[in-house]
Design brief:
CATH architecture of the domain at 263-397: Sandwich
Number of helices: 4
Distance between the termini: 41 Å
Radius of gyration: 26 Å
Strand content: 35-45%
Number of strands: 49
Shape: globular
Structural class: mainly beta
CATH superfamily of the domain at 263-397: Immunoglobulins
CATH topology of the domain at 263-397: Immunoglobulin-like
Helix content: under 10%
Amino acid sequence: MRRFLNPAIAIVMLAIPGAVFANVTGTPTLNSGQTLSLDTGTVVSSGGDIQFTGTGISFQGSAAGQNLSPFGLTGASDFTGITTSQSTLTAIATNITSTSITPLTTNQIIAYQTNGGNTGALLLTAVSSSAITFQFVTFVSTTPVITSVLNNYGLVPAGFSNSGISPGMLFIIKGSHLASATSVSSLQSTTGGAMLPTLLNGATVKVTVGSTSVSPAFYYAENVQLALVLPSNTPLGAGTVTVTYNGQPSNAFPVQVTASAFGFAASSGTGSGQAHAQDLSYGYYSYNRSIPPGSTIRLIGSGLGGDPTRDLQYVQPSAASAINALAHVYVGSVEASIFYQGPEGYPGVDEVDLTIPANAPTGCNVSLVGVTASGASTNFLTLPIGNGVCEDPGLGTTGNTITAPSGQTSYSVGSVDLIQSTVPTTGGGTQTTQTAEADFFSVSGITIPTSSSSSSSIGTLSLGGCIVVQSGLTSTGTVPTSTVTTTGLNAGTITVTGPAGMATLVPLSTIDPGFAGTAGIYATLDKSGNSTLPASFIPTSGGTFQFQGTGGTIAPSVGPFTTQVVFSTPLLTWTNQAQDATVTRSAGLPITWAGGSDGTYVVISGSSIATALSAYGFFTCLAPVAAHQFTVPSYVLGALPAGTGSLIVENETVPQTFTATGIDFGYAIGLLSYEINATYK
């Protein structure tokens, strides 16, 4: 069985009343290129918290920091005041968000959070281009702290209708000091009659619902994460989870135990993206080996419901083992026939076998979601459907273009966009703006979709389907940001020419101090942030617009390029906009439009935030423009929290790819966007 060890997605507060702390202190000198663990005070080759780059401090992994000088905290006296009081440091910990700090100066104080989840502060006492010297104090907690409890596969956070844990489920507990940090447990075997243990790496877990407590069995136990199987006799209802390590109990973390809360496994182990899909001979499907319509496939996950025979050990399933928790599975909004759903054999692991409908849409990212009889959805994933290498001809993507950067530690992307955007204003009216933009970046890391921009639909969703992204809010009540790391590329002078004439895109680094020293971002904006394009640059009759770049002369750079964007005649209009401002999540949401040219597509997206539940949801659906209507399914809307947010309808032109030296992939797109405020009930 493959192990999915899921990474943390948000910085959390770890100061818990009653926690026991042991200070780690030191006065190290860190040379350029060296990495230090702030939890141990030692220079390490990997797994450290900070690296001195010669010009600044770069935080590694999930560690983060914050320069306290802008808050008026500098020098030895302020440092002593902060580091002698854990509560003082905790009070400013919500500002610990930076992944790098530069420039560095003597007497500068930096608050930080380590990869181990501990808080601390350092005082720079000497700074040069070759080394820095500093004092530091890290408050290392020895008390277990739980920050989240999730389905191991679906990873839907608390606050959503499809969240929670269920009897027989494989679930994870995330936090800090949950088990030994120096001893890493191996994945526990359940073959040959072996049973999962209820004590592992010094940790035990108790789940309590009402007056009943049960002890889940472990797959593995690590300092920041545990994986366990919830006993099938666990009562349903509101309960708590507690971890005990070295005789110290954690906080009692609230959970909801439901009869079923299924989540599909993703290939990435992140709960989103491409599904972990196999044929019945256990061969894997991928972008380069897509699923022919009519095929029967094997999916795995967890949360269909309890099965006491498999709580602790492997038992071969049979047809009689079925647990029919899912009433429907939709592939690209077309219902698929479920061949089998029930235990896979290993404790906590379920299997869903289904036949891809003959009329299912084809593409590289056809949406996949399961729905219960009550309307609750699973997590949303995608499948590559077609023959051989998958293909989305209307979107300009194929399996080859998607996997081109595979195996690289980074890849470079260029995009040019011509945008007409209509958004609501604070006075109740609307404002329409036309802008041209260009971005050239070298990218490393994984981007978590958090933006309402439909540009995120390129390469992530095929026509005819919908996906939903669900996340909790950060400790400050905001949506978690992307973990992607980017380096701007110089593209020289970029112009766009259309029916109304030519305009020049300027580097944002020349007009906004916030972008000083940053290459790669260009736009038709002035220093006040207003577009320099005339209001009629994109006429209502559309037209052809040509982008040209001279190529950069300052490294890192890209070479010359030419590409174009073609807007339809006439431009698309959203015809039932007023009726869509109130969204009833239990009912489908019809969207209608007029205009737009065949071959383009419409992106329908929306978001909702429920601050009281610490929940944020965002959906995207893609439809061909020729259909002139699309109904967002109730199971998509029901995956969003009730709250306030937005609804957006956009017409995107078919992406035009272009090449240039210095980039792996380039595309040009035209975007017509209408946004309204929306209430989700």
